[in-house]
Amino acid sequence: MIHPLYSCIWFNNQAEEAATFYSSLFRNGKVLQNTPIVSTFEIDGSKFMALNGGPTYEVNGAVSYYVYAENEAEINRLYAELIQDGSINMPLEKYDWSDRYAWVVDRFGVNWQLDIASIPYTQKIVPCLLFANQKMGKVKEAINYYTQIFSPAEILMEYPYPVETGLPEGTLLFSQYHLNHLMFQAMSSTLQHNFDFSPGNSFVVECDTQDEIDYYWNKLGADGHYDMCGWLADKYGISWQIIPHQLPQWMADPEKGQRVIEAFLKMQKFDIQTLMDA
Q1: 276 with 210: CB under 8 angstroms?
Q2: What's the confidence (pLDDT) of residue 35?
Q3: Half-sphere exposure (CA, 13 Å, Cβ side) for 124?
Q4: Is residue 86 a contact partner of residue 105, using CB atoms and an 8 Å limit?
Q5: What is the pLDDT of residue 119?
Q6: Residue 1 has pLDDT above 80, yes or no
Q7: Which of 18, 114, 182, 204 is within CB 3.0–4.6 Å of 5 for a Cys-Cys bond?
Q8: Residue 277 has pLDDT above 90, yes or no
Q9: Ordered structural domains, the chain, with CATH
Q10: Under 8 Å CB-to-CB from 21, ≥6 apart: which residues?
């Protein structure tokens, strides 16, 4: 069974607060689960995990969440709520690519791009990866890499830089693609940025079998690096969590949960049988 990918956001012990805020802010929001470690929630049909990770990592603009608002009233409401105790990278106004667009950072440090645009997909909140600095020209390479690993996968759209920029032909400014039923966007910037991909934003791959865990662990971790508890960073620095599909259920079990946590804290790659036996 193919489980849809979903986004994970690292919080400094504010996961439950953030999940409640986002679930009340966006359409069709609901909190799915709260534990001391994670909160999961759904907004506008997209699932998210909020992780109580402490101060070790922070989110930044390398990963933002692109919101396709339906109308001006909706984008105005989202903008007003998200900037409270947050900051504005690009104010809500007309730009060359949109009649109403903004890039804001909310009070938790999470980056959001707001746009009024009609897209032919049901997913309206899309994780957006920013390839900058030495990674600026790697968007097409990275998308080809990911679409070869995941199935189903599809490149939906590619928009190259104009010829007059002087960049190598085919260098992508923007792209949309699907991996395991989750739409992503990737964009590049010729400006210098003081941030890069980090575990502050990651993507969760739920697996039914040990063979699936082994496959994604080996494919995505190649030329990257492996961390503990099912985490890895791929060769572009993007973080992934390769976990058993049953893990949230096991962790929520009042008898089994603590034993499962103690077991996986000793692991790099998850071993399903060991967790089942915990």
Answers
A1: no
A2: 87
A3: 20
A4: yes
A5: 86
A6: no
A7: 182
A8: yes
A9: 11-140+172-188 (3.10.180.10), 208-277 (3.10.180.10)
A10: 108
Contact residues for 277 (Cβ-Cβ < 8 A; gap 6+): none
CA gap 39, 6 in Å, rounded:
13
Instruction: Give the Å distances, CA to CA, from 21 to 27, 83, 97, 153.
Output: 12, 13, 29, 32
The structure tokens listed for 34 are 């709260």
Residue 243's pLDDT is 98
pTM above 0.85, yes or no: yes
User: What pLDDT digit, counting tens, does each position of 224-245 carry?
Assistant: 999 999 999 999 999 999 999 9
Tell me the DSSP string of the chain. -PPPPEEEEEESS-HHHHHHHHHHHSTT-EEEEE-SSEEEEEETTEEEEEEE-TTS----TTEEEEEEESSHHHHHHHHHHHTTTSEEEEEEEEETTEEEEEEEE-TTS-EEEEEE---SSS--EEEEEEE-GGGGGGHHHHHHHHHHHSSSEEEEEEEEPPGGG-PPTT-EEEEEEEETTEEEEEEE-SS--S----TTEEEEEEESSHHHHHHHHHHHHTTSEE-STTEEE-TTS-EEEEEETTHHHHHH-TTTHHHHHHHHTT-SS--HHHHHH-
